[in-house]
Amino acid sequence: MELHNVCLIVMIVQCLMVFELVRPDCGCNKLKRQTEGQVQPTEQILYPSGEPVEQEEKPERLLDLVEHSKQFEQMSLIPGGEYIIGTNEPIFAKDREAPARPVTIGAFYLDQYEVSNGQFQEFVTQTGYTTEAETFGDSFVFQGLLTEEVRKQYEDFRVAAALWWYKVKGASWRYPEGDKSRDISKRMDHPVVHVSWNDAVAYCKWKRKRLPTEAEWEAACRGGRKQKLFPWGNKLQPKDQHMMNIWQGTFPDNNLAEDGCEATCPVTAFRQNPYELYNIVGNVWEWTADLWDAQDATAERKPGVDPPNRVKKGGSYLCHESYCYRYRCAARSQNTEDSSAGNLGFRCAADVN
Predict the structure, then answer these.
(1) How far, in Å, CA of 233 to CA of 229, rounded?
(2) Rg of the chain over CA atoms, in angstroms?
(3) Could you tell me the CA-to-CA distances from 334 to 160, 288, 331, 345 in Å, in that order?
(4) How far is residue 353's CA from residue 18's CA, in Å, rounded to a whole number?
(5) Who contacts 41 (Cβ-Cβ below 8 Å, separation ≥6)?
(6) CA 54: distance to chain centroid?
(7) Running DSSP on this structure, what letter comes out for residue 194?
(8) CA 307 to CA 213: how far, in whole Å?
(9) Going residue by residue through the chain (353 aa), what tens digit of pLDDT does each one get?
(10) How far apart are CA 253 and CA 266, in angstroms?
(11) Residue 5: what pLDDT?
(12) pTM
């Protein structure tokens, strides 16, 4: 009898392990850009003058105050202190969501909105910057945004582990679907997508800002609340109200768009916590400054061939509880620094001093 019980316990444990391994996933963390032999684009000059900001002449005090005010426009001040990040009830254990742990951060500013197409266009216009997706000539697009004709054309260019992702020639921040007849002219207030971590860092530097750390991002996401699932609390739809842009329906073929969004939505669409942050979860994934593996900070890597992974947070319009329950504050995922996709964007942070 005891042997039977032991065997039963072993079988249960094995089943649980298999369940974790095959847990449904949207596959956007499989969108790796680099293959052996590819050369990563070289660093570009980020300022129109070609000179580092530190070498510019120091402005007069009044102008300094004006510039300071403009820099922090549409940013929220996130108070410093001790916060609890992570969770003791992880949904994706392999993502290292656990454990819940205290972190101490200093006060900082965070953009209230994700960086929009309009803002990124201004950056490109003033600097001549070229994104990595434009340099490589392609990026990853979700199947629901492609015509049947395009799907057939790129059938052999799908991601093996996530067949709803297509590597489409010409897809970039300017043409999110890779279709020159569908540009961003009517989506200037939507978040910029198809931007790599390197592209996001370049924009932040131009704005004299930076990407938030994962701890800063999560502390801001929680809005002063402790160990809640979402920025506003634990209920997905308080008072039956949609609070974010995520998937409704059966993924990946039936998008009900009950939240009013078939893909990305305007960056001002969903206010989500007392810090006046919009779309901090849902809409598009957001890059953070953190490496996925801390040892990559000192690891020897082959330039242009083996870029490290960076942490992204917040989930996207493709997330659903049954498939990619990563629009929780504690959830996290990763992509390589040069990866880009139609559901990946960012927002900027800035130091108080």
Answers:
(1) 6
(2) 21
(3) 18, 10, 11, 13
(4) 49
(5) 130, 132, 135, 136, 198, 338
(6) 29
(7) S
(8) 19
(9) 454 554 444 454 444 444 444 456 677 776 776 554 444 444 343 323 333 333 344 444 555 545 556 789 999 999 999 999 999 999 999 999 999 999 999 999 999 999 999 999 999 999 999 999 999 999 999 999 999 999 999 999 999 999 999 999 999 999 999 999 999 999 999 999 999 999 999 999 999 999 999 999 999 999 999 999 999 999 999 999 999 999 999 999 999 999 999 999 999 999 999 999 999 999 999 999 999 998 887 777 776 678 999 999 999 999 999 989 999 999 999 999 999 999 999 999 999 98
(10) 23
(11) 52
(12) 0.85
Residues 6+ positions from 23 with CB-CB distance below 8 Å: 92
Q: What is the 8-class DSSP label of residue 272? A: -
- Residue 301 structure tokens: 């890597």
Q: Which two tokens stand for residue 280?
A: 């901090």
Instruction: Report which secondary-structure segment, H or E, holds 103.
Output: strand 101-105
**Neighbour count for residue 1 (Cβ, 10 Å):** 5
Phi, psi dihedrals of residue 262, rounded to the nearest 5°: -85, -25
* Geometric angle at alpha carbon 121, from 76 and 131, rounded to 5°: 100
Report yes or no: 172 and 129 within 8 Å, Cβ to Cβ: no
| Phi and psi torsions of 287, nearest 5° | -65, 145
Which pair of tokens denotes residue 308?
Answer: 């490290």
Tokens of 307: 């870029």
Report yes or no: 288 and 310 within 8 Å, Cβ to Cβ: yes
Beta pairing partners, 169: 138
Determine the residue type at 337. Answer: E
Q: The dihedral of CA 337, 94, 29, 118: what is its sign?
A: negative
